[in-house]
Design a protein that fits this description.
Radius of gyration: 22 Å
Largest sheet: 4 strands, antiparallel
Number of strands: 14
Number of helices: 0
Helix content: under 10%
Shape: elongated
Length: 217
Amino acid sequence: LTELQLAFSRDGFHWDRANRQTFIGASLKKESWERAYVHSIGGVCNIVGDKLYFYYTAFKGDETKSKSPYFDYYSGMYANAAVGLATLRRDGFASMDAGSAEKVLLTRPLEFSGSYLFVNADCPQGKLLAELCDTNGFPLPGFARENCTPIGLDSTRTMLQWGENKSLQDLDCKKIRIKFFFTNCKLYAFWISKSIEGVSGGATAAGGPGLNSTWDE
């Protein structure tokens, strides 16, 4: 039984596979087109709007070939191949979740060079706010929770702002901690972008419509 799992890396050199859960699984049913063996396709995934597209190969096989004197793996086990497509929310691999009771998430100290804080969050029935803090966790003037405009929508790219303050460029420090407050919300990702459009500067895997670079620029 061959299935697909995920490995993670921050730099492309050091990898972690602590989570051994199946990402794209196979079936043991005889008539399944994904029977027992699925195989990844180069490029890992495509980025299509707000979704990630994962193409993969699967094999139904052909047991009738096993009775043939000419049977081999390629004519039997690997017969009836097909291409599958699995989709996932963009950056939707994991989330920090909150129900009706408010949760708080304080990041480790972060160095940054961008100007605008963006989040990927699902909270159409809830809300999310944030405050920018010094390395001790105390809010910076003008960027406290009460200054933040709450968001309450399902979006893979939404900018946070504090009153008229949109840009982080004028902050005196370049090392901050972000404290998120959220209810009825799934927080998938956050990043500080150099552009008001919210480009992340991250890798774009196998690319996709409108992506013309190895990096999200």
